[in-house]
Design brief:
The longest helix is centred in the middle third of the chain and has 17 residues, at about 55-70. Helix 3 (about 35-50) runs antiparallel to helix 4 (about 55-70) and helix 4 packs across helix 6 (about 95-115). The protein folds into two domains: about 1-30, no CATH class; about 35-120, Orthogonal Bundle (DNA polymerase, domain 1). It is about 65% helix and about 0% strand. It is elongated and about 75 Å long. With about 140 residues, it is an all-alpha fold. It has helices at about 5-15, 25-30, 35-50, 55-70, 80-90, 95-115, 135-140.
């Protein structure tokens, strides 16, 4: 254990020795963990300054909904299950496959911006295949 981690842990151990209950959360908290909501706010500020207004709005909706849907509170905790939970919440709300695919792409951009590995496998990817409707088929035949 590094000196910094040991120094941060000592007050917790001292409190336990004195009979004070401490939460496991205090002991296991990562000192350099980046808060998810803070990271989202920082990223959206960058997007606002460097991208179009519509792009900022699309990323904003996506990332704020993702933060509400996932169980992780820090960037380091984000995982594949969080992405699946978010995509499932979109499907439950009746969001179209094209919009879900777009939002997954926005989310991937966010992950890569912070140097995180995109947790989805190639087989997990949200697939969007536009199926031509009957009227489009008829117009092509004429």
């Amino acid at each position: 254990m590094g000196m910094t981690a040991q120094l941060k842990r000592e007050p917790i151990l001292d409190a336990r020795d004195a009979g004070v209950e401490t939460s496991d959360e205090e002991e296991t908290a990562k000192p350099n963990a980046r808060d998810l909501n803070e990271a989202i706010a920082e990223y959206l500020d960058e997007v606002k300054n460097g991208r179009s207004h519509k792009t900022h709005l699309a990323y904003s909706v996506t990332l704020r909904e993702f933060a509400r849907a996932c169980n992780s509170t820090t960037m380091e905790e984000l995982n594949r299950n969080d992405v699946f939970t978010y995509i499932g919440s979109l499907r439950d709300r009746g969001i179209t496959p094209r919009t879900i695919a777009n939002r997954a792409t926005f989310l991937k951009t966010f992950f890569l911006h912070y140097g995180l590995v995109w947790p989805m496998l190639k087989t997990d990817q949200v697939k969007y295949t536009e199926k031509p409707c009957l009227s489009q088929k008829l117009h092509r035949q004429v």
